[in-house]
Amino acid sequence: MATINIYLFHIIIRITIVAMSGSDKERNMDHVLIIGINGTFGREVGIALKAAGVQVSALMRHPSRLPAALEGVHVIQGDVLDRSTLAHACEEVDTIIYGVNPPNYDWSEKAIACLEPVADMAERKCLTIVFPGNVYALDPADGPEFDEQAVQRPRTEKGEIRRAMEQRLQTAALHGAKVIILRMGDFIAKDSGTSWLPVLIREGRRGITLASPCAETLRRTWAYVPDAARVVIRLLQRVDELEAFNLFHFQGMRLSIRDIAEAMEDVYGKRVRIKPFPWWAIRLASPFSTLCSGLIEMRYLWNEELLLSDAKLRTFLHRDVPSTDIRTALTEYQQG
């Protein structure tokens, strides 16, 4: 009889712990930590979260660099590699937006190192991680259409790193974390340091020049990041319906350089001339610049179409996927 009573006592304790954990989780559901809030993805998701009334915190090495649009966000000063600071930043949150992007394509030393403590923290605290995926681990030769079932066959070191990062997140999902990867193409956003557009567009007295890194009619997947950020909000609002590991493609806009040039002429009211992108100059500089060598390494992505299909995302969100057209996006881009 005593053994049965002890057994029942343990069951009651376990039920109580689960119930208390559930109530804590409910209270903290609307508190999100952004790591990499200065980056394009982190900033735009932060703006969308604030607009949705979600409490937002940010882990930053330099709090003075908080984007003006995110004034009022609670900032914890520190580095993602400092595990004690990271633990403090995660005390009251339920979700982490991972927007860390190593500068100048210096991924080999920093990409996995920065992700590891975050993945470990998410495992131990059963947090949700939102991770911005890209197309680096996909081989355009397998396309042009790619859905979430596409086999990853990276051609480059950066592709291998991205595959390893996603594999680490899959492991985290097996050990308590919930993972949402939103795979996107090239970014379009205001004040973006990770977008091709500022590199390709040059405005002068005689009009606008748009450099083309590829054939003018070759289509690419472009992600208007405010749209992607709104998708993140919709996914987080239904996070309880998701599996432990979730990969979604965001189709965004399928555009060629010629499509962009025509849209720019409509929006800016100026002639847009298309000229070849100076790959030769990037190649000359690549021995002296990790950024340039990284661009050369990933040049193959401009040689063939690689188009993301988001049928899975549209099905899950009942087709409620934001889709800003290129002309509207360029208008907002110009205003930024």
Automatic annotation (TrEMBL):
Superkingdom of origin organism: Bacteria
One Pfam short name: Epimerase
Occurrences of domain NAD-dependent epimerase/dehydratase (ranges): 32-246
Entry-linked InterPro entries: Epimerase_deHydtase, Lipid_A_modif_metabolic_enz, NAD(P)-bd_dom_sf
PANTHER family named in the record: BIFUNCTIONAL POLYMYXIN RESISTANCE PROTEIN ARNA (PTHR43245)
Name of this chain's protein: NAD-dependent epimerase/dehydratase
Organism: Mariprofundus ferrooxydans PV-1
